[in-house]
Amino acid sequence: MSPRRRDSTPGPTAAAALAESLRERILEGDPAPGTALREEELAQAHDLSRHTVRAALAMLGAERLVEVVPYRGARVATLDDAALIALQQLRAALETEAVRLLGDTHPSGWPIEVRAPIDAAIDALASAEGSADWSATTRAHAGVHRAIVAAADSPRIAEAHAHLEAEILLLLAQVRPDYPSGGLTAEHRSYVDALGREGGAAVREHLAHSTALIRAARAKNTN
Amino acid sequence: MSPRRRDSTPGPTAAAALAESLRERILEGDPAPGTALREEELAQAHDLSRHTVRAALAMLGAERLVEVVPYRGARVATLDDAALIALQQLRAALETEAVRLLGDTHPSGWPIEVRAPIDAAIDALASAEGSADWSATTRAHAGVHRAIVAAADSPRIAEAHAHLEAEILLLLAQVRPDYPSGGLTAEHRSYVDALGREGGAAVREHLAHSTALIRAARAKNTN
DNA sequence: ATGGGAACATTGTTACACAATGTGCCACGC
DNA sequence: GCGTGGCACATTGTGTAACAATGTTCCCAT
């Protein structure tokens, strides 16, 4: 068929589509962190060339969901405790500044159009916790933080935060901090209220608590 | 030659080396923002295959120094005013949190081992301003901010900041804010002192000033 | 038991080809 | 003369096949 003007933009490239598919599976926890991702295997499994597979792995490498080491290959990323702390520090930087920008824009308090998407995200978290689906719960939890950051209307902070979100989902696919049923939702309702009052201090307290729970869960996993 | 155990790690891959070479040139302002980077041209100029060139362009795309659009190709990144503001907001997030972490670690003030590399970077900035070399000056300026962020010992904040630094160098390769000779150095000596006292407020004031100067310089360039 | 080296697995790169898409230009109709 | 459709062209995305380069594993000799 000869080229001709299209009425719509083309779909994602094959490499982008593979990256998306692998990203979804990785964030679901299968393949697990540390698993090698062999180019030829992926090429045959997805009926693609090694070139296309390599491009997809490079994309995931840039997102840090995959670790690519020259001549050694790609593996699903793992995260030690030092890396967890460093990641949470970066997360604190982004969420704190987002909350501060929100405060600048709304010095008299967050109006309903700021609160509504955040409250909706918390409601979604309540539903997920109620369904006892850990994957859905971690995604809904991420949605709450995403809604808060998005409200600041700072695209680069939002984008950087989205990348971290994926790394955190990868981590949480393998650990399960102790929360009583509904505990995450209650905690996040309080958290959002505290944000309006205390701003950055509330962010830091929340993330310190989160880090401690994750480390405790990981310690339990390795014992 | 048959494979044999090596006493050293291999050098960078050809794709990484090309990415590094292009990065250097882009940050020097040639090719200029908006310039198309044609795969076949680069392949012939560097005696590499298109696959290797594509891998290098993808790396630079991930760093946002290059904009890669499927089926349209790669161009040196450009930055409009909205993007500049968004970038500076992200920068504020990183530098503010770095300074806050420094304050946590050194509540009684920054000890000499924290100050020394920062002061050395400022001295390097003074030398660069004295030499009237704009490229050297923007790099030395970046070195000052890098030293401050590095002092916080938070690897993910430092790495995210390094990526922004490259984008800012790209921007500054094309504009030149008005500074009297030595003005940048004096301003940054005061800035570092203010950081110890005022922390995040000093960061925000500094970046707001920087944004205003850059926008003014860009406005002058387009008129 | 240990270490050197060969074999093997895997990745990085190359050459060449073709499919897919976007852009520009030309011709035709009004 | 102008606008639009369509074709040609340039460029990118992907594929095949091969080989160079590197890291790992295993075997054999000491």
From TrEMBL, chains A, B:
<dbReference type="InterPro" id="IPR008920">
    <property type="entry name" value="TF_FadR/GntR_C"/>
</dbReference>
<dbReference type="InterPro" id="IPR036388">
    <property type="entry name" value="WH-like_DNA-bd_sf"/>
</dbReference>
<feature type="domain" description="HTH gntR-type">
    <location>
        <begin position="12"/>
        <end position="79"/>
    </location>
</feature>
<dbReference type="Pfam" id="PF00392">
    <property type="entry name" value="GntR"/>
</dbReference>
<dbReference type="InterPro" id="IPR000524">
    <property type="entry name" value="Tscrpt_reg_HTH_GntR"/>
</dbReference>
<keyword id="KW-0238">DNA-binding</keyword>
<dbReference type="Pfam" id="PF07729">
    <property type="entry name" value="FCD"/>
</dbReference>
<keyword id="KW-0805">Transcription regulation</keyword>
<protein>
    <submittedName>
        <fullName>Transcriptional regulator</fullName>
    </submittedName>
</protein>
<dbReference type="InterPro" id="IPR011711">
    <property type="entry name" value="GntR_C"/>
</dbReference>
<dbReference type="InterPro" id="IPR036390">
    <property type="entry name" value="WH_DNA-bd_sf"/>
</dbReference>
<keyword id="KW-0804">Transcription</keyword>
